[in-house]
Predict the structure.
Amino acid sequence: MTDDVDNDHRLYVLLPDSWTAHAKQNSTKEYCYRKSEGEEHFHLLMKGEIYLMHQGEKYCLNCALQQEAVTRNRMHWQHS
Ligand SMILES: [Zn+2]
């Protein structure tokens, strides 16, 4: 069997002591703390969306991936 990264949707938190994963419980308007470069708006977090929390700030998964708080590389421990 080959390592099919494209079909692997698992994500790994690089610093699980300080970053925690949550599923948004309600529909109250909350935004991702970070906006992507070149973007004018903050990312609205939807009910049920999985987001990360770090020092009281919420991050959508896209931003968490961009700033390498999470990774798709399940072997990252071996490379760090
Ligand atoms: Zn975001």
Remarks:
- DSSP finds two helices and seven strands in the chain.
